């Protein structure tokens, strides 16, 4: 069979829960950035779904830019080695930057990105992450907008991949161990 659902053990966050949560977060972003133009920076590729849905729930003006970094490759564990595959098109000088991520796992990717962005002269830098795994944290990330804290399981869907697959699932689900072990 090739049904993706046979390769999952549990739905962790449903499409509807994601939709509701992103609306709440978008309302907070609109309020916090009232009167300011925001530059949303999506971290490719995992953040594409969050970026698309968060951005469309906002009422205020935003620009969108993308940074492509990767620390996982085809494995299930973060290597801690962050590679830039595509840099921003925008100059961050004086900008209010909101980094949009699908998940904070070890925190190494965002820790590296925050340090990198801090040197580019932004007026402010905040983070919005749909998911966070508190038990997996190797570094603490100051994340202003968090969707859900989840257990330390291997999750896929809604942008999150295993070996580049499963990103197109509408829910966030736990990958069955037989798939990756
Ligand atoms: C994943 C995820 C986050 C990061 C989180 O990206 O999308 O960007 O790992 O892990 P960390 O907190 O342990 O650093 P990945 O490197 O797999 O690239 P992708 O977004 O293209 O899947
Ligand atoms: Mn990513
Ligand atoms: Mg990945």
Automatic annotation (TrEMBL):
State its location(s). Cytoplasm
Pathway note: Purine metabolism; IMP biosynthesis via salvage pathway; IMP from hypoxanthine: step 1/1; Purine metabolism; GMP biosynthesis via salvage pathway; GMP from guanine: step 1/1
Q: What GO biological process, any one, is recorded here?
A: IMP salvage
Q: Which residues form the signal peptide?
A: none
Write out the catalysed reaction: GMP + diphosphate = guanine + 5-phospho-alpha-D-ribose 1-diphosphate; IMP + diphosphate = hypoxanthine + 5-phospho-alpha-D-ribose 1-diphosphate
InterPro entries this protein is in?
A: HGPRT (IPR050408), Hxn_phspho_trans (IPR005904), PRTase-like (IPR029057), PRTase_dom (IPR000836)
Q: Name one GO cellular component term.
A: cytosol
Cofactor or coenzyme needed = Mg(2+)
Enzyme Commission designation: 2.4.2.8
UniProt entry tagged with the keyword Transcription regulation: no
Q: Which residues are in the Phosphoribosyltransferase domain?
A: 16-162
Write the record's keywords in alphabetical order, separated by commas.
Cytoplasm, Glycosyltransferase, Magnesium, Metal-binding, Nucleotide-binding, Purine salvage, Transferase
| UniProt main location, coarse | cytoplasm
Q: Per UniProt, what is one GO molecular function of this protein?
A: nucleotide binding
What EC class is this? transferase
Q: Which family does it belong to?
A: Belongs to the purine/pyrimidine phosphoribosyltransferase family.
Matching entries from PANTHER family are given as:
HYPOXANTHINE PHOSPHORIBOSYLTRANSFERASE, HYPOXANTHINE-GUANINE PHOSPHORIBOSYLTRANSFERASE
What name has this protein been given in UniProt?
Hypoxanthine phosphoribosyltransferase
What is the organism field in this record?
Labedella populi
**Per UniProt, what is the name of the gene that codes for the protein in this document?**
hpt
């Amino acid at each position: 069979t090739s049904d993706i659902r046979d390769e999952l053990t549990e739905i962790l966050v449903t499409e509807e829960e994601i939709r509701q949560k992103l609306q709440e977060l978008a309302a907070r972003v609109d309020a916090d950035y009232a009167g300011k133009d925001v530059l949303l920076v999506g971290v490719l590729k995992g953040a594409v779904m969050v970026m698309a849905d968060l951005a469309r729930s906002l009422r205020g003006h935003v620009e969108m830019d993308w940074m492509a970094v990767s620390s996982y490759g085809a494995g299930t564990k973060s290597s801690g080695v962050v590679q830039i595959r595509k840099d921003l098109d925008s100059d961050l000088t004086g900008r209010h930057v909101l980094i949009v991520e699908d998940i904070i796992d070890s925190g190494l990717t965002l820790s590296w990105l925050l340090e990198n962005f801090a040197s580019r002269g932004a007026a402010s830098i905040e983070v919005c992450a749909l998911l966070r795994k508190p038990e997996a944290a190797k570094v603490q990330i100051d994340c202003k907008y968090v969707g859900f804290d989840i257990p330390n399981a291997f999750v896929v869907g809604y942008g999150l991949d295993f070996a580049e697959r499963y990103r197109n699932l509408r829910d966030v689900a736990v990958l069955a161990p037989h798939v990756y072990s």
